[in-house]
Specification:
The protein has one helix and 59 strands. The protein is an all-beta fold. The chain has a five-stranded antiparallel β-sheet, with no helix packed on it. Strands 2-32-59-58-57 form a five-stranded antiparallel β-sheet, with no helix packed on it. The longest helix has 4 residues.
Length: 642
């Protein structure tokens, strides 16, 4: 009998956020979705529900749960309908939000909430033909469950004790048997003929059904969830990835990378299916091209696969259906390479001709910095730590020999960031050197052939005029003032002749050898970058005062002005607040923000934004002559051929 895994909706609400994993020993490539595409529109398999939640299938029927209006109303149902169509048959009614279905040859198993006890659930069974339901497990915080021929297995999270367990019970009832417990919550669960698998803070765990110590099959990762198995591998979602590992152990493979809002996961004999950002997707288990099967147009809670169709619960009033064959391929010629997986709290990113560099910021329980400065070859491979135990490093930049960054330090008092430092380390390794200490930890950074430049937001931040721009020789010495009286200067850039920056109210340039700053534009902005002839920057044009971070209410624009002066030119408009970085190549400007859901490029001459990547969550961005590099929201570093 095929083993069936089920995860509960609480695995989404209370997902594990754990440690990072090592970078893959070799680059992993996965085609990336570049545009919203769809095949045939999905059809409603059945409508008229209140809130569909979980879907499973057998050879003849589709089964689902309807949560009802809420657990307290106890008007939820477990239903089925013949695959060829027909009226739904109610198997169980008057239930408190039933979720998380599983099947065996004769029965339907499901979870129901306990209206009197928050987070408590009961595991119940009802015959496929209907009748009275039997309760197997009562009043536990069940996070996932699965079946084999003889037993039901489940995981719990006891928040009162801060502990978790994996247990089993005979389908005929009786006393539960403990499989494993620890001081961490246990989440999704799956079983095969010999073993039980689950997710917890230690990682993807495996234990023999017959007993014995649990082992970590895969290290813990960012927000792991949706664990499923086939005959040879385990699959799960981790942050922006669909991950794969052999059940016998080995390397963790990012099968799918850079996806935004990853949801449900399901398998058939050849493919992996998932939903992300309103699209239903498919990829072969061996990798290769991804396919967009449908635009779901609603959140997807559960996927079920049979020989010809995909069924899903849309968290609305219907169970949906579409044929799983076909689909729109996603530009297989442009592949992505994963350079590093899930770097914890990645704060800045930069390139040179051969490597990618980044910083991470993490504090221990004592609030002492554990940040690092990292490097990886642009071809992939092992990661190199250039500096460790830094006080929240950020704003990284490079030259031919060194890497520079700002240590943000700690906020010693409200609004006081004077524990920052301007740092340097050789690319060849060695001890980090503080070029300037007691600086504004919010500073932005730029370098030229001789100097390091940074901004100082001032002690009164954006309300005052005591910000400044500084420089220091790359070998150290006393910091020198380039400009004062600045209202919180932000983005900064350099070329062979000048240093450029913007404050809250204007865009400036200055000769770093001396002379008064020159105003190039009478408004400030966010991101800033320069090429041989022009300065490019992004600024807010409208922002909602009633809806925080609303894409509908906030708009940004991209501007250009000649380095020699003249009227600024408005190049393009995008929804949302401006990004903190702009990337340039010979002909285009690359831009991303929270509302883009990917990366766009805009010709330097102006025009409509052109999608480069869609359905990816981008935090930092850089380009060179041949590739686009970015970091995902979980700190994963990626590269794509232009």
């Amino acid at each position: 009998m095929k083993m069936i895994r089920v995860s509960t909706w609480f695995s989404i609400l209370f997902a594990v956020v754990a440690c990072t994993v090592a970078a893959p020993t070799a680059p992993q490539t996965t085609p990336t979705r570049v545009a919203t595409a769809k095949s045939d529109a999905p059809a409603a398999f059945v409508g008229g529900q209140i809130k569909t939640w979980s879907v499973v299938t057998d050879d003849a029927f589709v089964y689902w749960t309807d949560c009802g209006t809420n657990p307290a109303a106890q008007n939820g149902k477990v239903l089925r309908a013949i695959k060829s169509g027909g009226a739904p048959i109610t198997l169980a009614s008057n239930e408190a939000c039933p979720t998380s279905l599983a099947l065996d040859a004769d029965g339907v198993y499901y979870l129901v909430a306990d209206p009197a006890q928050s987070l408590r659930k009961h595991l119940k069974r009802i015959a496929k033909t209907g009748g009275a339901a039997t309760t197997l497990v009562t009043g536990q915080d069940i996070r996932g469950f699965a079946l084999d021929d003889a037993n039901a297995y489940w995981t719990i999270c006891d928040l009162t004790r801060g502990a978790g367990s994996a247990l089993k019970i005979s389908k005929q009832g009786g006393a539960p048997t403990l499989i494993e417990s620890s001081q961490d919550c246990f989440f999704d669960l799956a079983v095969d003929a010999a073993n039980v698998y689950w997710i917890e803070a230690r990682g993807i765990m495996r234990a023999a059904k017959s007993g014995g110590a649990a082992i970590a099959l895969a290290p813990a990762q960012f927000n792991p969830r949706q664990l499923v198995l086939d005959d040879t591998h385990a699959y799960w979602i981790a942050g922006v990835y669909v991950m794969q590992i052999a059940k016998s152990g080995g390397a963790v493979i990012p099968l799918v990378a850079g996806q935004k809002d990853l949801g449900s996961l399901a398998l058939d004999h050849a493919n992996v299916y998932w939903n992300a950002s309103g699209a239903l997707m498919r990829i072969a288990k061996t990798g290769g091209a991804m396919y967009t099967l449908a635009n779901t147009n609603a959140p997807v809670q559960s996927l079920a696969i049979d020989q010809t169709n995909i069924f899903w619960a849309n968290l609305g009033n219907a169970v949906m259906k579409i044929e799983k064959s076909g689909g729109v391929p996603i530009e297989t010629k442009n592949e992505t390479t994963t350079l590093a997986i899930a770097q914890e709290n990645l704060t800045s990113f930069a390139l040179d001709d051969a490597h990618a560099y980044w910083t991470t910021c993490r504090y221990g329980a004592d609030r002492v910095g554990r940040g690092v400065v990292m490097r990886v070859s642009q071809q992939g491979g092992a990661l190199t730590t250039l500096a460790a135990d830094q006080l929240c490093p950020k704003e990284i930049a490079t030259d031919a020999a060194n890497v520079y960054w700002i240590n943000a330090g700690r906020e010693t008092a409200p609004g006081d960031y004077r524990e920052g430092a301007v740092m340097r380390v050789a690319k060849s390794g060695g001890a980090p050197i503080a070029l300037a200490s007691k600086q504004d930890g919010r500073a932005r950074l730029a370098v030229d052939d001789a100097n390091v430049y940074w901004t100082d937001c001032g002690t009164t931040a954006r309300s005052g005029e005591d910000g400044a721009v500084f420089k220091i020789g790359k070998q150290g010495g006393a910091p020198q003032i380039i400009a004062t009286g600045q209202p919180c200067p932000g983005g900064i850039a350099t070329d062979a002749a000048n240093v450029y920056w913007h404050s809250a109210s204007a865009l400036y340039k200055a000769d770093p050898r001396g002379g008064a700053p020159v105003i190039l534009a009478s408004h400030g902005g966010g991101a800033l970058n320069v090429d041989d002839a022009n300065i490019f920057w992004a600024r807010v044009e409208s922002a909602s005062r009633t809806t925080y971070r609303s894409c509908a209410d906030e708009r940004s624009a991209l501007y250009r002005v000649s380095k020699s002066g003249g009227a600024p030119i408005r190049l393009a408009s995008l929804m949302g607040l401006p990004a903190s970085k702009l990337a340039l190549d010979a002909t285009n400007i690359y831009w991303t923000n929270d509302c883009v859901g990917g990366i766009v490029k805009i010709p330097k001459a102006g025009g409509e934004p052109i999608p480069v990547l869609s359905n990816v969550s981008v935090k930092h961005l850089a380009v060179d002559a041949t590739h686009i590099y970015w970091t995902a929201s979980d700190g994963t570093v990626m590269r794509k051929v232009k």
